[in-house]
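Deliverable D5.2: sample structural annotation.
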Amino acid sequence: MIRDKVSLHSVNNVQRLDIEFEYPDSGIIVVTGRNGVGKTTIIKSFGLSAEPNVFSKTSGEGVLSEESQAAFELSGINPFSFHYNPGLRAFDSKDSIPNGREVVAELPIPYGVRFQQFSKVAKYDEELKISIASNDYESATNLIRFLSGVYSSDKFDSLLATRIGKNEFYFILKDDDYYIREDHFSSGEFFLIQLYRLISSGAKLILVDELDVALDAVAQANLYSAIKPILQANDSRLIVVSHSLAFLSTVDDGGLYYLERIGGEISLEARSFGYVKSDLFGFRGYDRYILTEDSVLEGFIEFLIRHFSIDCHYRHITIGVAGKNQLKMIVDKNDAIEIFTNSDNVLCIVDGDVFPDLVDEYEGPTKILSTPVDDLESYIYLNRQVLLNDIELPLHKESRKVKQASKQYWKWLTNDKDFSAEQLYRLIVDAEGVDVAPLVEDIRAFLGR
């Protein structure tokens, strides 16, 4: 498992922040959070390796002090740190600093390299014309593959590339040697090309602020999967900042980090999409909220509402948060600042194995209920000889740990055996109907008149 550690002290609006990024298999970390919490400060701190004056050039005076420090322990790179130098009025370091082939930090508007490419393309227009006239170009195969993956379109199949000095430029050739330069594409298409330049640069660690600038919803939803193979081909890892709900929803488990202020302290920790969506975007406009510990239980609650024809007088939403700890944090936040609504209109439902600890740890007013089984996925896995006796066992090697094996089995059933989650929920209800009934009545009372 690849890990990067960063420690910031008295840098801009960050008084103290210790970060440990643990990368999923995709090699992509996505950072999100409310405006002004410090996301851009983190990206700029990585930019110190290329430009020690990055804060004074982009944030003005007063963002650093004599206590300012930034220390890095990056995988595959010798540790290095920066300290404020009052003589330079900027950060300084005596360590060996990684070069641009190792760490690349792309800043937001208007400082990033992406936003300077417009003028560069125009500057080389005459050389571009010469390259076209002499047929000195080739198909931009890899970029075409990337853009096609993002847009699900063949619009860029005729995209060409030419090299002028150290620069490579892209264009589409029309009749009579007329051409469309990359800076004449739509803003979203242009910035995607600049993103491609960054992620295919070969740098070991790449950071990009405002990743999804100017992209439409479809492109945002496809971007994550389109980036993955390029990083893998270059043995690179990526940290990006985004606020796009469509993009955040596609991030692999463990790859979404949420920057938030809790009790006056700033923290950056891996969070579930449900947690981030709840806290960052909120769900205003609903009368009732049901919070659960994961998406499987979220689906089970909605199944119970449909299966038992519960009359939902109040408009509701069920949200799977991911894990007891994050669920408790969301419930505590709602109790304190009503990110959803007042606590009387919130119901928390967890599996039986989590219920005792949560009830013991939680001291607030929100009502907490339990399902009749310890864990939905484990229930199906442990009872499969009875519930699914006509289904052959999977060929893959199963984990010795029940929790992990049950999750793999559930995924195998729903992905490879074409079982729907609803079929599995029905098996549980049919087998545990007597014990399910009290939970159904509690939900009915919560959502009814």
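Annotation notes: The first helix runs from residue 39 to 46. DSSP finds 17 helices and 19 strands in the chain.
The annotation will be released with the project's public dataset once the embargo ends.
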